[in-house]
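Issue: copy button drops trailing tokens. Both records pasted manually instead:
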Amino acid sequence: QVQLVESGGGLVQAGGSLRLSCAASGSISSTNVMAWYRQAPGKQRELVAATTSRGSTNYADSVKGRFTISRDNAKNTVYLQMNSLKPEDTAVYYCRVSPFSDDLRDLRFGSWGQGTQVTVSS
């Protein structure tokens, strides 16, 4: 089983930046999709960005041009660089790893991290 630990959340002013990290450990397949989701109070959890083992990426329209997902396969870590943050980005951000997959749109199976709070003030 895979364990995921997120870090890097916090309070930031609008227009600022944060970098989230998610370190994976355990039985990690060489082929996988790593992704970031977020969930605001009273709203559905939504996919923010995803990346395959080969480095292909996909982003939600709301964060394109502002967020960058990247990964370090040697460290089994995925990052989310968030720039030009808006109050609408306020949410709990969750890391997800889907094993044995190279499909950016298929994260049905996998593990969740515990989440890290991101709060953007106006």
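Record 2 (pasted manually too):
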Amino acid sequence: QVQLVESGGGLVQAGGSLRLSCAASGPIWRIDNMEWYRRAPGKQRELVARITNFGIMEYADFAKGRFTISRDNSKNIVYLQMNNLKPQDTAVYSCNASGEKTVQPRYFDVWGPGTLVTVSS
């Protein structure tokens, strides 16, 4: 099975920074899109950022200018650098990856369990 594990969450003061990591493991042939989502208390899950197999980056409006998504293809890791954090950024951040495995069934689309980010005012 392909599995994802997030790390890097924690408690930070407003204006601070965190760097989230999501590591994929298993029989991976290639990873196409990698995404970060978040779910804040009382809100629906929303897309934070996406990086495609072509290296194209997409951001939610609230993330533009503050968050940066990147990936290390050799290590199958996607990162989310978050700067100038605000209390409203408090949420569980989860990563998603899709691609092709070396074994059947070839296609995968999996989620990590999430990591909690808490921003204090």
